[in-house]
Amino acid sequence: MTTIKDIAKAAGVSVTTVSRALNGYSDVNEKTRKKIIEISKELNYSPNILARGLVMNKSKTIGLLVSGFNKESIKDNFTFEVLSGINQYAAETDYDLVLFNTTSTKQREKTYAQLCRERRVDGVILQGIKTDDPYLQEVVESNIPCVLIDIPIQTENVGFVTTDNIAGAKSAVRYLIELGHKNIAMVNGHDLAFVSQERLEGYKRALSEAGLSFRKELVINGAFEEGKSEEVTHKLLNDYPEVTAVFCASDLMALGSIKAAGKSGRKVPESLSVIGYDDILLSSYVSPSLTTIAQNKQQLGFHAAQQLIEMLEKESAPAHIILETELKIRQSTAGI
Amino acid sequence: MTTIKDIAKAAGVSVTTVSRALNGYSDVNEKTRKKIIEISKELNYSPNILARGLVMNKSKTIGLLVSGFNKESIKDNFTFEVLSGINQYAAETDYDLVLFNTTSTKQREKTYAQLCRERRVDGVILQGIKTDDPYLQEVVESNIPCVLIDIPIQTENVGFVTTDNIAGAKSAVRYLIELGHKNIAMVNGHDLAFVSQERLEGYKRALSEAGLSFRKELVINGAFEEGKSEEVTHKLLNDYPEVTAVFCASDLMALGSIKAAGKSGRKVPESLSVIGYDDILLSSYVSPSLTTIAQNKQQLGFHAAQQLIEMLEKESAPAHIILETELKIRQSTAGI
DNA sequence: CTGAAAGCGCTAACAT
DNA sequence: ATGTTAGCGCTTTCAG
């Protein structure tokens, strides 16, 4: 493996000059630079990024802390799409991505912050972390530049990007109301997800603006899981037969609700309207296809990467970015 | 950021002792070790992995060269599942994953081998690379330990893992034959994919074993894309109305074929049987659900990671691992 | 415009 | 069982 030392020797100059030439400094004779570059090509030189990182105290890598790397998350490939967006932006830069994972096993008892420090990542993107996760606190306090996805924390070195969940949920419920529904239930995720809190708020507001009263017994938690949602929806439809529409905080849960409808003798959309959230791939393929609030997951990742790298490169302040959502009307909803 | 130097000072020993204590060497007094460990915790020490990598000449990272990180690949989340499997294995080790990407832009004109050398990855896993990709050659020749997914190259430092594509394709076609089909077309991917060559071979063998003749005009290429497959299948059904069954080399293409069937006035499975390959998530959700050859993509990744890390740690020789496939009978196929 | 020298944090002979 | 020393490959003052 050739080093700048080898090049220096071959070119008859010092390592300093080689370093400067290769890094595009101006104070080096063009002739020497040309020569050095030529030699470095001949010798098939690649800089040792570890050595550079050691002395410069930065690694040109950004760490990815995603919790959704398991079988569960393959269904809604939220994580993957976010990743794809991050990658898309990062590809245009000279940053590489390192994947940390949360599967806490015996051998891997290190905390996130430790992981980040060890690897000397320049910054971190967090995704899929619950609001009460101790790691979250840790990372936020660690003063590593950091961008959170769907968690609204902003500090001196932490920014975030999310979608407008209140508006999204509101437009979903408003649409159901426009269709004539009056008894609208909600299948939420869980209380520890920021997006759940927001979507609940949107649900409430839409009801209130339409002069409908909020009944907390019509809001149930489906844990963001298809099966759990099926279970709780089934019970709900039994207990409150007046319900004619369900707003689900995720498409996966909407799929579960639709199954539950079948078990309860309801037909979607004729005797029950179901609207989801996310617009995962499955939504347009299932039958009936799912009316849903679409959020652009790739954009989420893209903007997160962009923001982080701008914090790193331009020392810009952490920001909060709120992306818009879009109502996609398909077949799972109908007028009453 | 605390270093072993700080710890050494605090403990009144030399850095060597600290290094040895922390790395679990036996030749250090238990008392001193305890003290050192305690102090290192107090000081919230994390080793600088770059420094360690520099001197040890290894980085404890493995590089991921995947080509499927774009919008296309979100549909069949093959890439994601493989990644998930890799991650699953890696999580149990102290290796981290770094994601390289292929989006060749101006700024990123480095070759894979360069990327790997720069980052000093200890090994690489390649996925989604075409057989004629110059990078493939480069990496194989670079003598970096490497595991290929679905490309059967085995050298001194290159192993691979794949599924038994011949057997898989054969069982798909054999199943169609058992259903009574005689005129069976095949929508293949493209010639530059190893799996396509294998699956074609399986198709031929199944025909031959059943005494059916191979007609090369019934084999068309769908480029592994849904839209392309729809297009070519449409034409095929038009030109050869005697065809009653189609074997597709991927589920995504099977989805396209089913659409084409609709356009051609064929009903699946009543007047056209379609069988896919992969068993992507969509397959069980679409209607009619897709009969297909399932391959375990997570296993693919898992075994790749396992093999690579064993090459790295135990210096075991590169191997080739062939995983089994499974016929999943659903609704898109029927007897004639 | 170029070079000498120091040092980033760590490990590894080689003493002792 | 512990310390001394050298060095991994690179960047960066500081002097010419």
From TrEMBL, chains A, B:
PROSITE patterns listed in its UniProt record: HTH_CROC1, HTH_LACI_1, HTH_LACI_2
Ranges for domain HTH cro/C1-type: 3-50
Superkingdom of origin: Bacteria
The entry's keywords: DNA-binding, Transcription, Transcription regulation
Entry keyword Transcription regulation: yes
SUPFAM superfamilies in the cross-refs: lambda repressor-like DNA-binding domains, Periplasmic binding protein-like I
Record has DNA-binding as a keyword: yes
Any GO molecular function: DNA binding
Boundaries of every HTH lacI-type domain copy: 2-56
Xref: Pfam families: LacI, Peripla_BP_3
Protein name: LacI family DNA-binding transcriptional regulator
Native source species: Metabacillus sediminis
